[in-house]
Amino acid sequence: MPGEHDAIENLLAESRTFPPPPEFTAEANVSDPSVYDEAAEDLERFWEREASQFHWYREWDSVLHWEPPVAQWFLNGTTNITHNCLDRHVESGGGEKVAFHWEGEPGDTRTITYSALLRDVCKAANVLKRLGIETGDRVAIYMPMIPEIIVAMLACARIGAPHTVVFGGFSADALVDRIHDCGAKLIITADGGWRRGQVTDLKGAADQAFDDAPTVDMKLVVKRTGHDIAWDDDQDIWWHEAMDAADEQCDPVEVDSEHMLYLLYTSGTTGKPKGIKHTTGGYMVGTASTHRWVFDIKPEDVYWCAADVGWVTGHSYIVYGPLLNHTTSVMYEGTPDFPDKDRWWDIIERYGVSILYCAPTAIRMFMKWGDEYPGSRDLSSLRLLGTVGEPINPEAWMWYRQVIGGDRCPIVDTWWQTETGTIMISPLPGLTTTKPGSATFPLPGVDADVVDDTGESVPLGHGGYLVLRKPWPAMLRGIYGDDERYYETYWSRFPGCYFAGDGAKRDEEGYLWLLGRVDDVMNVSGHRISTTEVESALVEHDAVAEAAVVGRLDAVTGQAVAAFVVLRSGVDGTDAMLDELRSHVAERIGPFAKPKSIVFTPDLPKTRSGKIMRRLLRDISEDRQLGDVTTLANADIVAEISDKATTSPGED
Ligand code: ATP
Ligand code: MG
Predict the structure, then answer these.
(1) Each residue of 388-444: pLDDT tens digit?
(2) Which ligand number lies closest to the CA of residue 270?
(3) Ligand 1 site, residue 418, Cβ cutoff 6 A
(4) Which CATH architecture group holds 115-253?
(5) CATH class of 525-645
(6) Fewer Cβ in 10 A, N or C end of the chain?
(7) Position in ligand 1 atom list of the atom nearest CA 517
(8) Would you say the CB of residue 103 lies under 6 angstroms from ligand 1?
(9) What are the tens digits of pLDDT across the range 285-315?
(10) 514 lines ligand 1 (CB under 6 A)
(11) Closest CA to 428 of 30, 34, 65
(12) What is the Cα–Cα distance from 117 to 97, expressed in whole angstroms?
């Protein structure tokens, strides 16, 4: 029985199970469960075998040096990740394979082969060198979802200049903060990009950032939209002009396995962004292996990771993992509702996409829009579906399976972070029997545990804090310029363990269920309740597409559950519906979890990466002054929710 004093209680039970289809298992990249034992028995040998598939100029002396919290992988080995992403495939005759089927929002398309990508990367690397960028210099990349963002990243990696990609939806201020933190010398940007039929003003923001960023000498500007922009010959260079003049030959720079490949700042759901540092060798091995296992990548697959390159999901599973595995990918510039709400399904039909990887927030949005959009397209090319970014509510998982996956595609719910670099907890699609809403088990070589306040493992059936006990190749190597914060944030709470900041539970069969951030856990009359489980209970109701709950101060119960609910299209938010939803939660979880208030809203405040911002909802519920909302995707909704929250009819 779940204990009253658990750090986080285990409240919902799920009995549906989905074994991998036998025909999937028969062909799967991983179909022998002994891989888990092999990795557990000899972690270093396991990863050494994975590493040996790559090109190294010099082999490593030892696989791992581990002095918590500092890890080094493949010590003294030297390599270049772009050689492994590009030259290696071209040299072995795979140059004509398509690396990217790219589609712009207005409908323009480009097909980019491995040979073409290699040529562009070499030219761009020569452009960087001409601009004075040297191995070790940081380069800021601030671009839309166009092929040049990938060329820019790889050009940096080719010469060993760490890139820091700043998501194109961020403001000039966010760009400046990150440039200051890492001392970037160059900004690579574009005039703009297309988003829902509008031009985004990237160049304007880059100009503003430039004025505040003394370390930056120049801006290299891709012409994407062709709209009028300010231009200053002393600081601006057209990408296409520089590329035309550049040589097509550029040898990759041989770098140490622990050479910094990139910095990526966490999205800032929780305070000041941290420059998460990733290095070369371990990251290369980790992204390629996890991509091959989890997505079961085959030579003939057409793979689509629908994240933005600006997030870690884009770094690891649009750029590095897929290219290392010689994969053909789809890349799309714009929004899913342009020109209409079937754009994604249209893309899947036209390119014959076989693997789709996206976020729960997108899935819930499609659920809200209705089944007719995917229903009008042929999605039979799909064979595997993935999700990442937030816990996926079991009902959203079921919808994804049935409506998108035609009840035949396995789903991989992948838990990981900017910090982990690679997927850590996920089904292996040919091996794992899945349960809707569970990320299932740690991948081979990953030692994940759920612990209580004292750091002891919780028994099966209980919840607590998610920790990782062993190092892994793609793990972060620190926070740029702040070792103390690295230690404090991740390693001080449970000595010797990496603390992810997330809650989790293990069910009676040992399956892992992510329960959201521990900062969001509610304490209602002594019950430690995860937001995830109450939200999932709400989403289980037919009328609900999406829900967020927060704990707000309450004189009687300590905290009370405040819910914000997005109804499916066509459903009305009546008082009767409100009562029904409250009773539904009480029935599914218990009377103590019943929302004290419910606000119906057309949307929820989200980060630019699509995650619900519960901190803001808490402020609204408690009527506090609102904090920073600049990283919000849909800032208007805050005012709207805020109005309603003060007049909510759901109060007792
Ligand atoms: P910040 O650290 O700045 O607050 P962030 O945590 O949103 O930003 P990411 O590194 O992109 O930035 O997200 C990682 C987090 O996303 C995880 O810690 C977890 O909370 C959540 N997450 C990712 N994948 C899953 C998943 N499959 N199931 C549950 N939660 C997930
Ligand atoms: Mg985080």
Answers:
(1) 999 999 999 999 999 999 999 999 999 999 999 999 999 999 999 999 999 999 999
(2) 1
(3) yes
(4) 3-Layer(aba) Sandwich (3.40)
(5) alpha beta
(6) N
(7) 20
(8) no
(9) 999 999 999 999 999 999 999 999 999 999 9
(10) yes
(11) 30
(12) 11
